[in-house]
Design brief:
heterodimer, A: 125 residues, mainly alpha, 3 helical TM bundles of succinate and fumarate reductases, 80% helix, 0% strand, elongated, B: 128 residues
């Protein structure tokens, strides 16, 4: 039993000084992903069964490589924002939530880094 | 009463509420989102294999072309189109449009059918 008032518990924990940044970036990335995903699906349909040379030729075009890097960046960013909200809604206690958010952030950043390096390696080969 | 003892309204999915178009589509949006995150592993694997050279790429094509690989890709395609279509629905809501119950139900059916049709269309085109 604490003698602190409910207000006393939350005072000072308030604004993390980023306001609606998380919400806004989720929307910004989602708007960016609409055309990027449509481009990606249409492109995949044309190269999915292609041999290595044809795939390499497609990805070595600067526009395709650039769009691919943009897609991967927006996608992994969006994935991280979305997973964070899911953890915040369902994972308790606070410590588990914190670890889940952090681990997911690290893993998604790593996956993004690996895939972008892979794209650049093919594009610049 | 301290904040953690206050009664909360129950979760939308469960025994307390009748399943509704809006709640089912809402939880499906999250489920497909989480599923797509897991699915990015396939994308990273495919790109990394391509970066390793022709032999690794060929091997990845064989793995992804297997029955299990194709099943995952098919489900991933549907999850992608569902999340895309429902995401656009969310963007309309963010703009303050389509909040009436009949509109939300109608746009929900649009999401369901467009995701199914686009998935089958893709696989018809991709079929050898």
């Amino acid at each position: 039993m604490s003698i602190r008032t409910p207000l006393g518990f939350v005072r000072g924990l308030g604004s993390a000084k980023d306001g609606t940044h998380h919400w806004w970036m989720q929307r910004v990335t989602s708007v960016a992903l609409v055309p990027l995903i449509l481009w990606f699906v249409i492109s995949l349909l044309s190269v999915s069964r292609a041999d290595y040379e044809a795939f390499q030729h497609w990805l070595s075009h600067p526009v395709n490589a650039g769009l691919m890097v943009a897609l991967l960046t927006a996608m992994f960013y969006h994935a991280n924002l979305g997973m964070q909200v899911i953890y915040e809604d369902y994972v308790r206690p606070e410590s588990k939530k914190f670890i889940a958010v952090l681990v997911t952030q690290f893993v998604l950043f790593l996956l993004g880094a690996i895939s972008i390096v892979a794209v650049l390696k093919i594009a610049l080969a | 009463m301290s904040a953690n003892k206050r009664p909360l309204s129950p979760f939308m999915i469960g025994p307390y509420y009748k399943p509704q178009m809006t709640s089912i589509l809402s939880i499906t949006h999250r489920a497909t989102g989480a599923g797509l995150v897991v699915g990015t592993l396939l994308l990273v694997y495919w790109l990394a294999s391509a970066a390793l050279g022709p032999e690794a790429y060929k091997h990845a094509q064989t793995v992804l072309g297997s029955m299990l690989g194709q099943l995952f890709m098919f489900l991933w395609t549907w999850a992608l189109f569902y999340h895309l279509a429902n995401g656009v629905r969310h963007l309309f809501w963010d703009a303050g449009r389509g909040f009436e119950l009949d509109e939300a139900t109608k746009s929900g059916w649009w999401v369901v059918w467009s995701s199914i049709i686009l998935t089958f269309l893709c696989w018809l085109i991709a079929a050898p």
